Amino acid sequence: MFGNKEMIDLKPNRLLLNPKFHGYKLSLDQLTVYNVKLEAGVCLTSLPESQFSFQQVKLFGRHNNLYADSHYENVVYFINNGLEIEQLVAKKDSRPTQTRIVYTIMNSSREQVLSRYNVSMSFPEKALAVVSDGAGKLCVLQTANRLKPQQWKASYEGFPLGETSAFHIMHSVHQLSPNGHHIVDVLLLHVDERGKDDKVKTLTVLEWLTFSEGDDESWTMDRLRRLEGASVPDYACIQSGGSALYISSDKDFQIVYDSMKPIEEFPLENEQDLKQPCYTWHQTDESLFLQFTIPAKTTKEDLNVEITNAKFHCGIKNGEVLLSGDLWASIQPEGSTWSIIGQRYSIILLFYYFKEKQKGKYCFCMGTDHSIMMLRLSIFLVYKFIVFTLHYKSKIILFLS
User: Fold this and answer.
1) What is the pTM of this model?
2) Could you tell me the CA-to-CA distances from 199 to 49, 94, 195, 232 in Å, in that order?
3) Tens digit of pLDDT for each residue in 52-103?
4) In whole angstroms, what is the distance from residue 69 CA to residue 362 CA?
5) Could you give the C-alpha distances from 350 to 17, 201, 308, 336, 359, in angstroms and in order?
6) I need a labelling partner for 172 at 20 to 30 A (CA). Which of 239, 267, 333, 401 fits?
7) What is the pLDDT of residues 381-400, one digit of tens each?
C-alpha cells in the first residue's frame, strides 16, 4: 500500500574493492567534435527573479537540453524554440546525420505562464514517450519504432495539475495490464512557495501520476500521489512495474495525498533519534583500527580489555560490554595497542601476514558481524547521490505502492 516508507541500507561487497586504487587518470587523447547547425535553435528557459530559491537554482542548474534514448543506441533528442522535438542519430566515428522533426507540441501556454520550467522528456518504453512543455502541459506519445521516419502521435494531451501548474519530468516507467493495455507511471517535480511576506516556505513537490489505455485506445489519468519535501532530490525514480518510488535526498519527503486511498501519517525522522554505531573501524594492509565512544571521565583502570590472536573482548568494569567475540582473522596480540583520548577509546590490532591471495580481505571486524561495515570505504563504491544514514544526512527513501 502506498504510504509504507522504508530506509534502505546499502551494503557494498568489500571483496570487490581495491585498497590500492587511488583514482582515474584523465586521458589527454583528443576528442572528435562534430558541429550540427540547428535552424530553430534550442528551447531554453532562464530563471526569472521570482524563482531564485536554492531549490529552483538546483533544478534549473542540472538541466540538460539533450535527452538520450535508452531503448535505441546513439539516438538523442532536443526541443527547439518552436516546441518541435528533433531527433539526432550520432553513430560512433561518423558525422551525425541531419536532425529530423518527429513531433510538435501544440497549444502550449508557455507565453502565459511566468513561473515555467524547461521542456523535458522521458522514454518509458520502445514505442512510447512522455513530453512536458514546462508550463503545465503533458503529452503521452505513441512513437512506434523511433528509428523509422514517421511522425509521433499523441495518445494523451492535457494539464494534469492545472493549466498554470508547471512541472519538470523526472522519470517514467511502462507496464502492461492483465488485459494487455498500456500503463505509464510518470514522476513530475515542481517547486512551490507557500505563505506570505517573511514567512514564505519553499517546498519541493513530487507528483506520481498513473495513466492507462482504455479499450478504445484512449488514455486517462487514473491516480495521483503527492509527496512534499524541503529539498530537490539528487535522484528520484519509479521502480519498474510502478510498485515503488525511490528518492535520494538530503531532506526527508512526506506523502501528503493519494487520490485512491487515505494517507497514513508518518512523523518526520529526528536525526538525534538515529541509533549510533557502537564502534567504527577501518584497516590497512597491516593493521586494524577500532574506535569506541565511552562515557566521560572513563580511565584505563575502568576498562577490561582482553586481546588474543583470534578473540577480542572490551568492556567497562561493572558496566556494559563494548565488544566481544571472535575476530574475522588472526592478529598479533603482543603488537596490538589501545589508548584513551577524551571520550574516544582507540585500538590498533596488528594482522598476522596473510597469504598473498588473502591479503586485504578483512571483510568484517568480528566474525559474527555482518551488519556494521566500514562506511568510509563504502562511500567510494557508490555514486555521489547514495549516502549512508548513520553518519550523513542524505537518505535513500523507498515508498511502496
Assistant:
1) 0.65
2) 18, 56, 6, 20
3) 788 888 888 889 999 999 999 889 999 999 999 999 988 777 788 788 999 9
4) 42
5) 21, 54, 11, 6, 13
6) 267
7) 333 333 333 333 344 445 44
